[in-house]
Amino acid sequence: MPVRELNRQQTWLLPPTLDELVPDDHPARFAGTIVDSLDQVMWEKLGISLDGELLGAPAYHPRALLGVWLYGFMTSTRSSRKLEAACRDQMPYLWLTGWQHPDHNTLWRFYKEHRAEMRHLFKLTVRTAVNMDLVDIAVQAVDGTKIQANAARERTYNAKGLQQLLKRTDMVIKELEKQNEAGDDPPPVHLPEKLRQAQFLRAEVKAAMVRLTEEDGLKRVNLTDGDSKLVRSRQGIVAGYNLEAVVSPLKVTDNKKTGLIMTGVEAVQEPEDHNQLIPMLEQSEETTGKLVDMTLADAGYHSGANLAVCEQRKQMIGMPESQEHRLKNPYHKDRFSYDASAESYICPKGQFLKFIETRSLTKKKVRVYGGLGTVCRQCSAFGICTKNRYRGVSYLLDLMMLTYAVIGYGWRQTKLKHSISVVRNW
């Protein structure tokens, strides 16, 4: 078959308009429509003025810059340098900017200045989709995942680590100052780069030490991202956040593939999910303007307090119990009954676990009960009920909890030698 001619100098006989270069159903048009539809009230919420300044060089229009960032979020392009490159050679971005080419500094300054206010756009886009009946709000799902911050784990220090780092930094500064003072050369007009960096690090460390002292419950701080915490992720322990999200399915139209729309999102410092369920449900309702019929969540959100609040909100929720697998164990803690007259617990095999002591467990007062080591080791359930020297249970004194915690005490646990000796002397 013949080969088509290749001519990179080919010109259009009838130059098309810029609008003709982007298909009508292209996602960039959604970003452009959202930005063009913003009224004066919304621009004021975003803290952006459309009038510009009377003096100085002409600035890029806020609609162009906001459109670039909005479409960048849609396509997972969040780097200002990548967005700068896209504004030079990608047609959707050229259409959004009107064939203008803002550099990465301009894009970053715009985002940095209006970053907090851009959350209003999230609510606006979701409300628009809901009002257009594109979202199936009969069901939603909530989940959390650990994300890594733009900070190294090694730059997270406790008070002792900060003291050691400050000491090493002071030594480096003194050494650099001695080097600068040696010789007959005149002192530099500006501090040398290495000395300036060392002094900047010293200021960072001192600020972190002050923060550790002033904030209650704060034991470690990251010098790069002070808000990040050490969290366990799939990549191991990293400096990061717990990202919570609520999603609902999009409705299927014309047999096309559907997807999900995010109706709530928040990055929190707390690694556990228990306390995030209700805030995420409230955020989703505030964003969509509707109470979703059914919410799905995993066992990480299960707690009596969350279920009580969901009942008050008349929020139907489906989630597994946090100990669903353990409850199948015939020697689960719930299988132990309490005998008030003897002030002891009775195991499924009919053996008594008597009171040993009151002690603290995870900042809560508990009453510890234990069985006889000789009896437990001879029991047919030994190895299933417990693999330690004997089986123990502890009752939380906090009446609001109304739960039991199971503890298996090992012979080599030095902190419990007193408890073990008490049991052996029965």
Quick structural summary:
The chain is an alpha+beta fold. It contains 14 helices and 14 strands.
Biggest pleated sheet: 6 strands, mixed
- What spatial form do the alpha-carbon principal axes imply? extended
Q: Which ranges are low-confidence, i.e. pLDDT below 50, for 5 or more consecutive residues?
A: 397-426
Our count of domains comes out at 4
Structural classification = alpha+beta
- The proportion of residues in beta strands is 15-25%
Tell me the helix content: 25-40%
H/E series, N to C?
A: HHHHHHHEEHHEEEEHEHEHEEEEHEEH
Distance between the termini: 98 Å
Cα gyration radius (Å): 31 Å
Can you count the beta strands? 14
Mean pLDDT comes to: 80
Query: Total number of helical segments?
Result: 14
Task: Explain what the structure shows.
The chain is of the alpha+beta class. It has 4 domains: 18-131, no CATH class; 139-145 and 228-322, 2-Layer Sandwich (Nucleotidyltransferase, domain 5), CATH 3.30.420; 153-222, no CATH class; 326-424, no CATH class. Helices cover 36% and strands 20% of the residues. It has 14 helices and 14 strands. The strands form 3 sheets. Strands 1, 4, 5, 6, 7 and 8 form a 6-stranded mixed beta sheet that branches. A hairpin with a 5-residue loop joins strand 10 and strand 11. Helix 1 (27-36) packs antiparallel against helix 3 (62-74), helix 4 (80-89) crosses helix 5 (91-97) and helix 4 crosses helix 6 (104-114). The longest helix has 23 residues, at 159-181. The termini are far apart.
